[in-house]
Design a protein that fits this description.
It contains 6 helices and 17 strands. The protein is α/β, with parallel strands linked by helices and 285 residues long. Strand 13, helix 6 and strand 14 form a beta-alpha-beta unit. The longest helix has 14 residues.
């Protein structure tokens, strides 16, 4: 973990209530991995007192910059949105457990909704550069938003030249409905092994799902992965206090293993935010 006061190079609105920041933080940029986040002090006094965790959209190791997209949802992010470029922000990071890319990966399905989309762009960049056992990893991206005006990062994925499909709640862009439905249809045509809609992949590292966004979306994606016999990784969001594992304010329930029942609850800030989808207890009902 690194603490720096980073110059704010760019700060602009990219969608309703969504803002992009670019910060000069070379040491953090070198260390950052997809799925990690920064803990940002948004004010100079004690109001707001706590920092705000924001996922990394990108880390340019050559330029020494990090990019983030956040949504204004409360007093802290409202203060942040008013800050002009040219100042400095106190950062802690990179924090958290990142996405893991298995060596045998051939196809990656990335599903994101709302502010869950930015960390998947960072992941997609790394996947495009990586090579699996069968050559380049094929990356498919599924993005969800309320309306076309609320969709973020679509242009960034297009620049990566990865297959990108969109779903919106009102049907104003792409398919009307859920990104999970888009992903379900695409899995039927997955290239490593042409399979029917009900044929499981029998769990391996050739095809993997990566998801970040609203909890119902990820729960549905996790259920789809389970039916298909696929491994999946999810990036969770919880309210955080310290973001270093001390306050226990961001614990989530996980499936306890017989040999380690004490691990039934884990911290999103340290053991996460990325977890295996099958480890998360999505519902107690």
């Amino acid at each position: 973990m690194i603490q720096v006061k980073a110059p704010l190079l760019l700060h602009r609105r990219v969608a309703p209530e969504h803002f992009l920041m670019r910060l000069l933080a070379p040491v953090i940029a070198r260390e950052a991995r997809p799925g990690q986040f920064l803990h940002i002090r948004v004010g100079s006094g004690d109001n707001p007192l706590l920092r705000r965790p924001i996922s990394l959209l990108n880390a340019d190791r050559q330029a020494g910059t990090v990019d983030l997209i956040y949504k204004v949802v409360g007093s802290g992010t409202a203060v942040l949105a008013k800050l002009p470029a040219g100042g400095r922000l106190d950062l802690l990071g990179p924090l958290g457990h990142p996405f893991e890319i298995p060596g045998g990966l051939q196809e990656a399905f990335l599903a994101g909704g709302g502010v869950g989309i930015p960390p998947l762009y960072f992941l997609a960049k790394e996947l495009v550069k990586s090579r699996g056992s069968g050559g380049k990893v094929k990356v498919r991206v599924f993005l969800g938003a309320r309306t076309k005006e609320w969709l973020i990062c679509g242009d960034l994925f297009k620049r990566l030249k990865v297959e990108t499909r969109v779903a919106t709640d009102d049907g104003s862009l792409g398919r009307k409905g859920s990104v999970v439905d888009l992903m379900k249809a695409a899995l039927r045509m997955s290239s490593p092994r042409k399979r029917g809609s009900d044929s499981p992949f029998r769990g391996n590292d050739e095809v993997m799902l990566f998801m970040c966004g609203p909890t119902p979306m990820m729960a549905a994606g996790a259920a789809l992965a389970r039916r298909k016999g696929l491994r999946a990784q999810v990036s969770l969001e919880e309210r955080m206090g310290c973001a270093m594992g001390c306050c226990l304010g961001c614990v989530v329930e996980v499936a306890a293993e017989p040999a380690s029942s004490h691990a039934r609850f884990q911290r999103v800030c340290t053991e996460g935010p990325v977890f295996p989808a099958e480890a998360v207890v999505w519902s107690r009902s």
